[in-house]
Input
Amino acid sequence: MTRLQALDPKEATGRSKELFEGIQGKLGMVPNMMRTMGNSSVVLEGYLNLSDILGKGSLGGKLGELLALTVAESNSCNYCLSAHSFIGEKLVGIDTDTLQAAREAINNDPKIAAALQFAQTLIAKNGRVSSEDVETVKAAGYTDGAIGEIVAHVALNVFTNYFNNTANTDIDFPVVEAATV
Output
């Protein structure tokens, strides 16, 4: 049972209504996470802005989705695992084996694997990574800017994981469950 209510986009008012209209126009629907975030238009707008700008970064959509899965598995967020598995497969075109492996920070491409492992390390160490951790991801070919983007992707996904775990958001994608809860 949800702990925070999702707003009905047809009944929303003010800035949340405007944001819902934009989401509806872009996605053809307003996912439950965003409907629930809409209880505070600043929460929803903050999420949308950071998500949008990171989508324009150097890492690309594929790595962004894989990072989201690594983070969601680490935080046992079934909503985000479900959403990013669906988006990764249907919208970004990532095969299901690659999506599944990302949940454990595994990838056949050593550079992608290094980013996923760095994300996992960030979470495990609450952001207090070592110089060696940073040097490892640099050695894989990431610039200081790209490392900053990895950190930002992790932060965005920790936010959505915590939000959905708090709200117990109804999953409106094919359900994927974390290996450990």
